[in-house]
Amino acid sequence: MSNIISTKDGRLHIYVRQDKYKGKLKSENWVGRTFHKGKQKVVSSGTTDLEEAKKILEQWYDDLISGKLDVNENSDKDSNNDINLEQDVETSNINDDQVSNIKQEITKENQLQNNTSSKIPEEKKKKLFNFDLSSLKNLSSLKDKLSFKKDNLENKNDKKDKNNLSKFKKLFSEKISKANVAGEEIAGIDIGEDSIKIAQLSKKENDWILEKISLRLLDKNKTADGVINAKDYVSEELKLGMANAKVSTTNVAISIPVTSAIIRVVTSPLMSDDELQKAIETDSLWENLVQLTDDLNEYSIFHQVISRNNKTNTMEILFVASKLSDVNAYSSIVKKAGLNPVILDVKCFTLKNAFDNSFKIENKANNALLEIGSEDNYLIIVHDNIPIITDIFLRPNEKDLLGQFDGNIQNTDTESVVRRYCMQLKQALSDYESKYSSKINNIKIVSSLGNIEELIPLFKKNLLNTGLQVFDPLNELQIPAYNQEKTNLRNRSIYTSVLGLAYRKLDVFGYYKFVTAVKNINLLPNREALKRQSKLKFLSGFAMKGLVGGIAALYLFLIGFSFFQISSNKGKLANENNILQEFNLVSAEHKKLSKTVSDMQKALKLGGMVNSNQTVSYRALAQITRSVPQRVQFTDLNYNGKNQVIITGLAFSDQDIINFIANLNGKDLIDQASLKAMNVPKGKNDLQSANNKKGFTILCKLKI
User: Fold this and answer.
1) What is the pTM of this model?
2) Is 568's pLDDT higher than 60?
3) Range list of β-strands (E), 285-377
4) Phi and psi torsions of 152, nearest 5°
5) How many CA atoms are closer than 13 Å to the CA of 346, on its beta-carbon side?
6) Pairing relationship of beta strands 20-21 and 340-346 according to DSSP bridges
7) Is 694 exposed, middle or buried (0-12, 13-18, 19+ CB in 10 A)?
8) In the chain, what are the domains?
9) What percent of the chain has pLDDT over 70?
10) Which of 262, 278, 333, 467 could make an SS bond with 442 (beta carbons 3.0 to 4.6 A apart)?
11) How many Cβ atoms from other residues are within 10 Å of residue 374's Cβ?
């Protein structure tokens, strides 16, 4: 964000937004921001001139505070060219031409004012703004009235189809996600400054089984500056831990400390999923709702809509972010160990996930989780999917005192630390109970401290009305005999985080996106690509299994059908020779009948041609017949039905053919007879071959 200019006793901030497109600012206009009635208000001045912008924005601020502006809450608009006050929210459905005309009038008015005088009277400025706003309101109202009926008629069926399609997609995603769970193996890895915990779970019916688990202590001297500054050492220890646990999968879920994450629940105007995505892609949403000290591009951000309120037109969004440097550092540790990180969660949510999978605990809503340790100390309460996290501040020496406590009640220094610790807890519980009218009766403690059982009495002494108990995440798991020794610890709460990560095998495919907000946190920058890859992998495997299954089913069907056919035709196969002989006889008879049919078809064809012109054809045929010499034979005669007859035949000599033509030309019905062709047949089946006859073709034209 650019330099911020504060006016109106610091209540109005004037600045230029830093949103960029292709390396250039989307808008260089000055923007004003203030808070009114608990809501942030942002408006563009529509000008790059600072002095002019100050006058416009200060007037807008005065009108806003005095109540002259009837504005919608949570508006946030920024025009690149013209004045765009908050009331422009009401014009979102106005025709573009109408809006353009109004803006042109405003621009002309501004130019006229600049030419006449540099100082605009307040009355004139108010009049200009009032004209703009009233015009927009009137046009918006008119637009709504005219388009209401049309939109209802046109969109009724479209909305129905879209809703049905959306329901189908959601159902398909859920079914596919659930189906993929069974085959998706994942191991949880909890990396702390003092140890590495590894766990892998499986599920049989409704019971979870602890398949693999490992606890590997780290050299605190090597991790004194943080695990991310000892990547090589931690990666090698992680390899050894994976080998010790005999984990076969390379897909792992890891977590980052609470101190490395920013967790907030923000309220925004009600938006659809598409609108929300667009707002996120342009960085405008987080820029206005979450004020970060660094550029958004330096963070990996996860969000989830917690709730939507149609009555107030608002929605609550869970915002979780972490520096990309921290995310990449933890990811690189597991990658160096030859593993594939598919989930990166925040430790507080992994604790909650493990707690939620403890089915035997009743009234979970009245329970809170408290982490007490040498690294993080915080209280987490989840109310209607809204995480409420309270950090407990301790100095380094105070953390050391807690870790060194040996149970001596006379240790006043430790008592003092616990007393101050509990004062912060009481305040957090009191704030929660006041805001949500709900009481926390029990606190489940998770701790990496070996002396946590000795500390519990001190905490109970200061929290008389609240139950305190060290949480045992292994209590409801089925633990095979080979893992009994590894889990036989006095303080088993140290496994809470890693088991919470191991439970994430249920949502590596994104299934929990449709269930709740605080169980599918994933800060990996490439999480969407991993999800698509997982889906593609499953669908490919599913398709291959389906193909193999289909081929196998077809093969079995064909085998069964073959046996049936063999069985049913067994008697017929015994009479195969008789059937074959019968077939041969029928085939020979069929050939004879086929030849007879062919001859009859030729005769019918010839008869049809003759019948086409009976009067002429009968007489002409009689004359042609009488013209044939004794040594001439017909093989074919074709009549076109009009005036042309083609005669094909055989003769013993050329003179016989000449005599035949001469006879034809002497008939009164024949206009002209001529030789068309002669040939000497060579085929075996030619009728004249034995007698050395000559073939001829004569064309006769009849008189009509």
Assistant:
1) 0.54
2) yes
3) 299-309, 314-323, 340-346, 367-372
4) -60, -45
5) 26
6) unpaired
7) middle
8) 5-147 (no CATH), 359-472 (3.30.420.40), 612-702 (3.30.1360.100)
9) 72
10) 467
11) 18
